UniProtKB/TrEMBL annotation:
Protein keywords: NADP, Oxidoreductase
InterPro entries linked: ADH-like_C, ADH-like_N, ER, GroES-like_sf, NAD(P)-bd_dom_sf, QOR-like
GO molecular function, one term: quinone reductase (NADPH) activity
Species per Swiss-Prot/TrEMBL record: Terrihabitans soli
Name the record gives this protein: Quinone oxidoreductase
Keyword Oxidoreductase: yes
Ranges of residues in domain Enoyl reductase (ER): 11-321
SUPFAM superfamilies: GroES-like (SSF50129), NAD(P)-binding Rossmann-fold domains (SSF51735)
One GO cellular component, as annotated: cytosol
């Protein structure tokens, strides 16, 4: 019987349990997929703690790569043996999952299963942030918080490839070195430096066209203060907690700024947009312009250790679980 990581109550890593789960035969339009590798993301922490509440009990996880074991009635786009991946599956922390074919994409040759699991959610997030939310290109200056993290390490490489000047915040000199290797032009040690002040120094007062912020409550004021008039504040996460006390007049006072709170789901809601996003990601990785770093691997049964490492900001690049 396949095993899965189940959350029966919201809380810390102590609520994670490793349990037998019955195998589910695929229904119409569904695939049964054997997991090869599973991605770990901050949204999983939000679900575990109840910040983004889910009906209890539930199997944790959103990202995985694996092999199709069985197809349901009416499935025409996939067959048994296909290598597939998803960034929006419900319950990816499992040895096996049955889910709608509409959320899966085929993994092309040249992309390993571990690489796919490490990049689908984070890489497609980077893609919509840089290509759709704000179309980054030559002449733009961007600030990316957590530049050496899972999304950051992909997005900064991609932004560099697109011709932007990239400023990234990091927590240590070690992470700063990694960020610079990934194409970050200027690093800021957020624990010891004033981010907005350093941005102004780096840009000679011009500031940034766009700021990408997945940290939230502890960083958003510095993010707003790092933008030029008519700049865009993209808040796509809240690893330090939800933003509190936000007043829209803050945008006016800083130069008629724009603000958005996007999610991957809305940018990949149709088969057309999902395939477009995934194919663009696969293409830029295959070209070598963006490299996927797997910073840590944990056995699925050791998921609590993986979460503690992620929450403790001990990780760089992507973290994956191996069933």
């Amino acid at each position: 019987m396949p095993k899965a990581v189940v959350v029966s109550a919201f809380g810390g890593t102590e609520v994670l349990s490793f349990k037998d789960m019955p195998s589910k035969k695929p229904g119409a339009g569904e695939l049964r997929v054997r997991a090869i590798a599973i991605g770990v993301n901050f949204i999983d922490v939000y679900h575990r703690t109840g910040l983004y509440p889910q009906p209890l009990p539930f199997v944790l996880g959103k990202e995985m790569a694996g092999v199709v074991e069985e197809v349901g009635e009416g499935v025409t786009g996939f067959r048994k043996g296909d290598r597939v991946a998803s960034a929006t599956v419900s319950g990816s922390y499992a040895e096996e999952i049955t889910a709608p074919e509409s959320i899966f994409v085929k993994v092309p040759d040249g992309i390993s299963d571990e690489m796919a699991a490490a990049m689908m959610l984070k890489g497609m997030t980077a893609r919509y942030l840089l290509r759709k939310t704000f179309a980054v290109g030559p002449g733009h200056t961007i600030l990316f918080h957590a530049a050496s993290g899972g999304v950051g390490s992909i997005a900064t490489q991609w932004a560099h490839h697109l011709g932007a000047t990239v400023i990234g915040t990091v927590g240590s000199e070690e992470k700063a070195k990694l960020a610079r290797q990934n194409g970050v032009d200027h690093t800021i040690l957020y624990r010891s430096e004033d981010v907005a002040k350093r941005v102004a120094e780096i840009t000679k007062g011009a500031k940034c066209d766009v700021v990408y912020d997945s940290v939230g409550n502890t960083t958003y004021i510095g993010s707003l203060d790092s933008l030029k008039p008519l700049g865009m504040f993209v808040l796509f996460g809240q690893s330090s907690g939800p933003v509190k006390g936000f007043d829209p007049s803050m945008l006016a006072a800083r130069g008629s700024l724009f603000m958005t709170r996007p999610t991957l789901f809305n940018y990949t809601a149709t088969r057309e947009t999902l395939d477009e996003t995934a194919n663009d990601l696969f293409g830029v990785v295959a070209s070598g312009k963006v490299k996927i770093e797997i910073g840590a691997r944990f056995a699925l049964k050791d998921v609590a250790d993986a979460h503690r490492a992620l929450e403790g900001r001990e990780t760089t690049g992507s973290t994956i679980l191996i069933p």
